Every structure is written in structure tokens, then in C-alpha cells.
Amino acid sequence: MTTLWVLFIFLNFDLLLQTGQCTKTSGQVLSITPNTQEQVEILKNVSTQYQTGLWQPVSPHNIKELTKVHLYVPGNSSETVRNLLQRHNITHEVMLPNADEIIKMQMRNDSGDPRSGSTFYYRYHTLEDIYDWINRTAHDYPDKVKAILVGSSYEKRPLYALKLSLNNRPNKKAMWIDCGIHAREWISPAFCLFFVHYSLSFYNINAEMTQILDNMDFYVLPVMNPDGYKYTWTKNRMWRKNRSPQKGTSCIGVDLNRNFDANWCTTGASPDPCTEIYCGPFPESEPESQAVANFLRSHKESIQIYLSIHSYSQMLIIPYSCTEDEAENHSELYEMVKTAADNIKRYYKNIYTYGAGAQIIYLAPGGSDDWAYNLGIKYSFTFELQDRGKYGFLLPPSDIQGACNEALLAVKTIALKVMEKPQAATSSRQAGPAA
């Protein structure tokens, strides 16, 4: 009988570890710095095993000597991974010792009535809550907000963009903002909700916002990747891609920000469906990226500014990320993001890096911002919101307001700068040749 009991415990030890009945070790986020190429190779192997989640950089290919790596390690692998790093003298520290507890806490903050006040905008919300908010907002502001069905996801969830138009001036230009292209970046949809709420609440109160809204419409897509976002709430908080199955493999999903036709699937993307940066079988293969691309193509005459909201690392990015070549109006774009970063530093004491993506991060082909730029939307940007890695994708709800305020200031700065330029050109054309 004793022998049978010992055998039972042995056979079920792994199950007990997984269910947490033998251990209460939380998932952790480690900051790791490889000092040699040998350590780089070890870390690449670690990041593809133990069901770890590579936060920074997004791909093992981009792990380099003397560059910090942020790695989520599940609780049942934490001790093994840390012992392995110590055995090879790889410098590391625990950034977040209680990642799983943080995730549970954030998921408890999903309830609330959108009409109950501004605190709604400083919590994270389920996809269902966001859909409900979209419907309520369009219903409550019928003369200012219109919900537009842009398309649907692989799992047939609707992609709704809100059009904010606060007056009927003819020939108005517009700005497009999409959020949530990467599922785990929860601060991104939070910003889209915040931005719409702020625009409606502070029109005719905040002078800059009033000036912008008087002269420009906005299209705001709160969740571009609804299937992936839903999955982060129900199955895997660290999920990045969409949820489309791929032929010939059990691996799921395409990185929507590698799926646009901008140097598609070259260096910085992967043809391997099991990677986080899988480019898809062909450009715009995914219904989500195709829906956005089709909408932008059909509105490219009016949409003057394209903005995609991401996290984390605090960056204001301009084209190109898909090539090391500079954009035609690189200097103009660079000056805009520099001014925006300076303003954030001045008002909020926070540092944002700025510049072309390929120069300040690494090559990332197939991005929506580069594609939009090549389409003809010459003011194209990607914002990487807070933070720089302390919490990463698990930014606490208490930091939502600060992150959104910083992004809002950057949006205002860029919108006002862009408005100066085409208005002058338009008015001069309307005036005709000098007498």
C-alpha cells in the first residue's frame, strides 16, 4: 500500500505543480543582461522553452550582448530558469516578483458603468465592456459620434471605429487612431477610450482640443485585435497575435503589425507561424489588417494623420521601421516627435525616445504605420506608451491616467503642428494666383 501511495505522488507531481497545490510561486518578470555571445545563445534557448514569454525584445533573434532582456517566467519554471542563469553567470534581477497576482488584480477592475464617472477610464475593461461602451457613447452623443463597422475579426467579432465629428464644416481632414493591435498591450485600448471621452468632455473647455476638433475629425478604433484581446482575458494574458489558425501547424495567430504590405516578411519578421512576429501567409492575409487597410485606402484623401498606439517603452516613432532608409519628410516628422517628447518631459517629467523605428529599435517590416505612410498619409506615427519595463505589459491601473495624459499631449502637439501646414497650402490654392 505504501508503495502504491509513493507511486501515485510521483506520477502526479507535475500535475500538482501546475495546479499550484504544491507551490504558490508566482510568475515573475526577469530583467536579464547577457554579456557574451555564449550567454546570448543560452538566453535565446531559455526564451523559447519553459513556456516563457519574451517581452523585450519581441523576438529571440533580437537578443544582443549588453542589452537588457525582459522575460516573463511562469511560476513553475521560475526557480529552474533563475538557477540556469546563475549557473552561467548571466546577470539578472527580478523586476516583477508577483506578476500573476498583478494580473488577477487588474482583471478584477473590469466592472463599471461608463456613465458612472471618469474613474471608468482608469481601469482595464473586458472586450464586452468595450463593445458596450462603444454602443453607449454613440447613443449618448448621436450628433457627435458615429460607430462605423470597419470589418470583422477571424472569429467574426466586429471591428468598430468611432468617428468623432463635432461640427459640419466641409472638406475637413481627419486623424486615424487604432489601439490594441497587439492583444497584451492593455494600456492601448485604455487610451482610445480615454481619448474619446476627453474629446467629448473638453470640447469648448480646453482651447487646444477645441481648435483641433473644430478643424479635424477623428476615427478611433479601440480594439483592432478583438480575438487576441479576448484571449488575454480568458486564457493567456501574454498573448500578442490574432487568433487565426495556420495551415500545417498547431501554432495559432499572425502578428498583425507584420502583416501589412511594407517590405513584408523581410528581416525583422518571420515566416514561422510559431513565432511572435509571424508575418502571415501573404500581406493583408488577416481580416483585421485587411479591414483597416481597406478603410484607409477608401479615406486616404481625408485622413491626414495615422497613429497606432502600442506599449511599452515610451517611444514616439516615425517611419520607417521596415527599412533603414529615411522617409521623404523625415526631418519634418522628426521635429514633430521631438517637440512632443520635449512637451511630455516638460509637463510630466517623463522621458520618451523618438525617431525612426529602424534606428531607435530594430527592423520591423509589415507595420501599419509604414504602410499608411506609403499609401500617402505622410504624417504617420506609432506611440509606445508607458512604461520602460518596471511593469511592462502589466502597467497598473493607477498608471493609466498618467500614460494617457502623456499620449494625449503628444497627439495634441502633432495635430496642431500638422494643422498649420495644410491649412496654409489650402488657403493659398483657394486664393488663386496673385493679381
Automatic annotation (TrEMBL):
Residues 123-418 form the Peptidase M14 domain. Pfam families: Peptidase_M14, Propep_M14. Its cofactor is Zn(2+). InterPro entries: CARBOXYPEPT_ZN_1 (IPR057246), CARBOXYPEPT_ZN_2 (IPR057247), CPB2 (IPR033849), M14A-like_propep (IPR036990), M14A_act_pep (IPR003146), Peptidase_M14 (IPR000834). Gene3D superfamilies: Metallocarboxypeptidase-like, Zn peptidases. GO terms for biological process: fibrinolysis; proteolysis. GO terms for cellular component: extracellular space. The keyword Signal applies. GO terms for molecular function: metallocarboxypeptidase activity; zinc ion binding. PROSITE patterns: CARBOXYPEPT_ZN_1, CARBOXYPEPT_ZN_2, PEPTIDASE_M14. The keyword Protease applies. Belongs to the peptidase M14 family. This is Carboxypeptidase B2 (plasma). It comes from Xiphophorus maculatus (Southern platyfish).
